[in-house]
C-alpha cells in the first residue's frame, strides 16, 4: 500500500479496536486518552515549589491574543485559523456558537495547526518530506470517496463556506507526515510476544457473551490551577452538543485525546478497559445515542457518547434482514373524526383476520388499503421503536397500527427473517496487530510531547 493511501485505507485500519487495544494515532492510550494525562497533578506541581498566593507582575489574557504564531520559523496566519474554523462551523449545520465559545475554538484550532506544523517539520528534517503530488492525490481521493465530489466541486464548496482547499491539504500533509514518522521511528521498535496474545485470546474466549460498547469521547486535560476554566469549557461543549452540534467536529478540535483525529471514536471496548470504576458504572448504564458529561476524572474532564453496544461473539439481532409488508390506508382531506374511526376500525379488523402474508394482499385490497413489499431491509435501518416490536414477532404477525389523520394508518407484517451469523471475534493475528497499535499509540503521544517541548513558538 502506498503511504499516501493513509487518508482512506490506513486510517481505517488504525481506528480498529477490540477488548485488546486502543487506537493507533487516532486512538487512546489503554482505552481512554486520559491515561496520558497528568496523574497525581498535585504531587507533580510540588516540584516547582509554587507559593500559596500567586500575584502576577503583569496581566496577560491568552484569550485576547491574536490567533497567529511562528513555529520554528514557519508562520501560521490568521487566515489559516479562519479557514479551519469555517470548516468546523459548517459541520455544525447552522448551530450558533456563542462569541466566547468561538474564541476558545480559534485557540484550539491554533494548537492543532501548531501540532501539524511540528509533524511536517519533523518529517522534513528526517528526509521524509511529503510531496505536493502526494497531498494532491490524497486530496482528490478525499473529494471522491469522502465527499462524493469532484476536486472542482469540493473547491467550490470550501470557498462557499469561507474555507479553501489549502486548509484540507494542510491537514492531509500533517497526517501523512505523522504516519510516515511513526512507520519508521516508532512502529519497528514495538514488539508483542505470542504469549501475551495467547493470554488475551483466552480471556476473550472466557468473556464471550459479555457486552462491548462503541464509545465516542472528548477529553479535556486540567490541573488544579485551571480546573474551573476547563470545567466551564466542557460545560459549554456539552450544551452545544445537546443543541445539535456535531460530536465528531467538537472532538476533532477540542479533545486532547488522540482519538480527536477520528472524531473521538474509541471503537468497541469493554467497560473494564476504561480502568476507571466511575466511568465503568456510567457507561454500563448508557443507552445508544446517549451523551453524558462532563465527568471529572484524574487528569481532566471526560464527555462521552455511546454510539452502540453489542455482545462479544454473539450475533446482534438488529443485523437481521427482514421481509416486510407495509399495509396502510390514507384519509382524504376533510375526513371527519367519526369517519376516520370507522375506517380505522375496519382496517384493524381486516388486519386481525389475515392469516399471514399469503392472503394479506387480497384482504388489503378488499378494504382499499395499499400494500408495499420490502424483502431485504435490515432491522437496524428501522426506527428504534419499530425494531423492538418487529424483532419480537413471529412470521405472519404484524405490528400494532400506527399513524394519524394526516399520515394515515399503517402496520408492518413480518413475512420473513434471516438472522445474522454468529461472529467468532478477532483471531490471534488480529489481536497481535491491535496490541501493537496500542503500544505504538503510547509512544506516538510521547513523541508529539517531545516535539512540542523542543519547539520555538512565537505568538503574535
Count of all domains: 2
- List the secondary-structure elements in sequence, H or E: HHEEHHHHHHEHHEHEEEHHEHEEHE
Gyration radius (Cα, Å) is: 27 Å
Q: For the largest sheet, list the strands in their spatial order.
A: 4-3-6-5
* CATH architectural label of the largest domain: Roll
Structural class: alpha+beta
Inertia-based shape: globular
Provide a descriptive summary of the structure in words:
GO terms for molecular function: peptidyl-prolyl cis-trans isomerase activity. Residues 210-308 form the PpiC domain. The chain has 460 residues and is α+β, with helices and mostly antiparallel strands. It has helices at 6-14, 41-46, 78-91, 99-125, 132-146, 151-160, 165-185, 194-206, 227-242, 247-254, 277-284, 337-353, 360-366, 384-390, 428-454, and strands spanning 69-71, 74-76, 211-221, 265-269, 291-297, 300-311, 321-329, 370-378, 402-404, 408-418, 457-459. It folds into 2 domains: 3-33 and 61-313 and 426-459, Chitinase A, domain 3, CATH 3.10.50.40; 317-418, Roll (Chitinase A, domain 3), CATH 3.10.50.40. The longest helix is centred in the N-terminal third of the chain and has 27 residues, at 99-125. The relative contact order is 0.16.
Amino acid at each position: 500500500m502506498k503511504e499516501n493511501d493513509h487518508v482512506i485505507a490506513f486510517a481505517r485500519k488504525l481506528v480498529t479496536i477490540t477488548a485488546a487495544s486502543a487506537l493507533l494515532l487516532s486512538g487512546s492510550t489503554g482505552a481512554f486518552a486520559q491515561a496520558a494525562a497528568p496523574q497525581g497533578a498535585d504531587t507533580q506541581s510540588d516540584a516547582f515549589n509554587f507559593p500559596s498566593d500567586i500575584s502576577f507582575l503583569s496581566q496577560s489574557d491568552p484569550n485576547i491574543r491574536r490567533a497567529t504564531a511562528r513555529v520554528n520559523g514557519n508562520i501560521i496566519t490568521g487566515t489559516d485559523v479562519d479557514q479551519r474554523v469555517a470548516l468546523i462551523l459548517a459541520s455544525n449545520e447552522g448551530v450558533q456558537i456563542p462569541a466566547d465559545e468561538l474564541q476558545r475554538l480559534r485557540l484550539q484550532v491554533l494548537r492543532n495547526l501548531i501540532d501539524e506544523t511540528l509533524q511536517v517539520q519533523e518529517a522534513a528534517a528526517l528526509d521524509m518530506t511529503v510531496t505536493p503530488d502526494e497531498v494532491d492525490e490524497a486530496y482528490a481521493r478525499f473529494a471522491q470517496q469522502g465527499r462524493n465530489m469532484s476536486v472542482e466541486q469540493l473547491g467550490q464548496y470550501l470557498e462557499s463556506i469561507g474555507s479553501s482547499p489549502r486548509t484540507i491539504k494542510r491537514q492531509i500533509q500533517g497526517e501523512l507526515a505523522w504516519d510516515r514518522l511513526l512507520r519508521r521511528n516508532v512502529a519497528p521498535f514495538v514488539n508483542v510476544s505470542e504469549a501475551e496474545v495467547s493470554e488475551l485470546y483466552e480471556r476473550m474466549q472466557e468473556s464471550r457473551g459479555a457486552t462491548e460498547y462503541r464509545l465516542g469521547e472528548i477529553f479535556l486535560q486540567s490541573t488544579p490551577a485551571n480546573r474551573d476554566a476547563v470545567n466551564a469549557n466542557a460545560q459549554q461543549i456539552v450544551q452545544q452538543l445537546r443543541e445539535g452540534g456535531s460530536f465528531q467536529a467538537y472532538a476533532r478540535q477540542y479533545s486532547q485525546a488522540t482519538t480527536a483525529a477520528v472524531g473521538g471514536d474509541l471503537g468497541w471496548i469493554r467497560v473494564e478497559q476504561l480502568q476507571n470504576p466511575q466511568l465503568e458504572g456510567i457507561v454500563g448504564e448508557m443507552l445508544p445515542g446517549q451523551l453524558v458529561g462532563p465527568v471529572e476524572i484524574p487528569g481532566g474532564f471526560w464527555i462521552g457518547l455511546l454510539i452502540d453496544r453489542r455482545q462479544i461473539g454473539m450475533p446482534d439481532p438488529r443485523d437481521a434482514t427482514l421481509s416486510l409488508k407495509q399495509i396502510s390506508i390514507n384519509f382524504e382531506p376533510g375526513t371527519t373524526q367519526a369517519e376516520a374511526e370507522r375506517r380505522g376500525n375496519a382496517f384493524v379488523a381486516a388486519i386481525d383476520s389475515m392469516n399471514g402474508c399469503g392472503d394479506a394482499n387480497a384482504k388489503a385490497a378488499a378494504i382499499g388499503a395499499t400494500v408495499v413489499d420490502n424483502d431485504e431491509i435490515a432491522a437496524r435501518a428501522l426506527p428504534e421503536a419499530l425494531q423492538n416490536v418487529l424483532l419480537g414477532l413471529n412470521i405472519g404477525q404484524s405490528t400494532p397500527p400506527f399513524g394519524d389523520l394526516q399520515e394515515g394508518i399503517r402496520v408492518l407484517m413480518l413475512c420473513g427473517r434471516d438472522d445474522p451469523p454468529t461472529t467468532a471475534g478477532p483471531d490471534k493475528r488480529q489481536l497481535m496487530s491491535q496490541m501493537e497499535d496500542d503500544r505504538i499509540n503510547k509512544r506516538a503521544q510521547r513523541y508529539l510531547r517531545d516535539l512540542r517541548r523542543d519547539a520555538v513558538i512565537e505568538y503574535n
